[in-house]
Amino acid sequence: MDEILGRRVPYSQEAEQAILGSMLIDPACIPDVVNNVRGAEFYIDVNRDIFDTMYAMFAMGARIDPVTVLDEMRTRKCWKENSQQYLLELMDVTPTAANVLQYCAIVRDRALLRELGSAASEISEQVYQEAGQGQQVLELAERKVYALRKESTTGGLVSMTHVLQDVLSQISQAAANGSQLPGISTGLADIDECLQGLGDGDFVLIASRPGMGKTSIALNIAVNAAKSSGKTVAIFSLEMSRQQLVLRMLSSESHIDLYQLNQGRLNTEEWGKLAEAAGALSKVDIRLDDNPTMTVADMAAQCRRIEDLGLVVVDYLQLMQSAGSGNSWANESRTQAVSDISRMMKVTAKELGVPIVCMSQLSRANEARQNKRPMLSDLRESGSIEQDADAVIGLYREGYYDRECEDPNSAEAIILKNRHGRVGTVYLRWIPEYTTYVNDERRHDEDGY
Q: At residue 31, what are phi and psi to the nearest 5 degrees?
């Protein structure tokens, strides 16, 4: 098509050849090359075959020179009659391996232009075929451009050699970090120990009955994540206004009674503590959206525009409008709608590469039992929620059901599901005047994780 229209496909034969020549001339540059360019970014087939061959050899720790590469090409069945001569030509046409990163940048840039052209063509085709509503086509366009911005793809088969390199790097990084959490800290030590922090692409569900403190623990996690990671945290609240959320965060941060704070009944010392808390919160990048008609597509579109996103918090799942189209509950069953939203949440977490922590309501089923601690089956309109979530945490306070109990502010975070580790009970302490959860001095139970 491009040839028919007289358009030249963006690529640089010289830069592609110079990368391969540099790898042959100076194998010491190969680690830099494989960290800066991918085989799929080579436009010329023979160049891509040679790069993939050397990449596989590098991953296996094999020695790389023209002879070994030629032999490996025979094994991989990408050898041709002129392969030996071409490898020698690659070394001859390469001026120096010192500029290999500049060659990589050229190849990457041309590949990005090709991908942009492909995305633009697909979007244009959707528009002129009227293949969907305008909002749906816009969502498609944003997804494609976001994937390109992240230099990632939204699917397709990838060689295990490439994935192995990523996993080995991840393991090496974990070893270098020692006791440091691989994910973002929640600020609650025992939950962190169980979940190993909030991992990239994780969909974490925190569920309880109304009034148990879901929003409070969500805000605790959000503030701590923003402080510990230095990244942007996005909070989407479908129940409370921005002002109410910030009041709660100020109360928790300053240790001032929320009721007094709301009434403005503060003494001189408390005004000082409030100013200090406001200063601390103003130093972190937390962004708030209180649109009660939010959809997952709306949320994803906003998150894609955030450069250094670290965490997304949603309060809460059952209030969110149905998948992408914004349909109301009346148009479909609640269970199916919530299932669709849950699935989209997981897909969005994976696409954004950040954890999404989502609050969820529990049904009344637990209240009919003598032991009212939450179970996975108690998730309201559960559908596929428990299947999509990487971790499910149920909040429980005896004092919620019995105010005369021995310790009404003792709380339990029950890890009901955990793809990254064991399940069990974590003890927390609820501080109602500050509407916050804190670590409990007791450790997890022996039968837990």
A: -55, -40
What does each C-alpha distance from 319 to 44, 302, 359, 396 come to in angstroms? Answer: 51, 18, 10, 21
Mean of pLDDT values over 282-286: 89
How many residues comprise the chain? 449
| Structure-model confidence comparison of residues 2 and 183, the more confident one | 183
DSSP H or E run through 115: helix 100-128
Task: State the catalytic residues.
Answer: 239
State pLDDT tens for residues 360-383.
887 777 777 778 788 877 776 555
Q: Which pLDDT score, from 0 to 100, does residue 161 have?
A: 65
The distance between the two most distant Cα atoms of the chain, rounded to a whole number of Å, is 87
**410-418 β-sheet, strand order:** 286-289, 232-237, 309-315, 356-361, 203-208, 391-397, 410-418, 424-431, 436-439
Domains of the chain by range and CATH? 13-149 (1.10.860.10), 181-439 (3.40.50.300)
Tracing tokens 């999404």 back to the chain, one arrives at 356
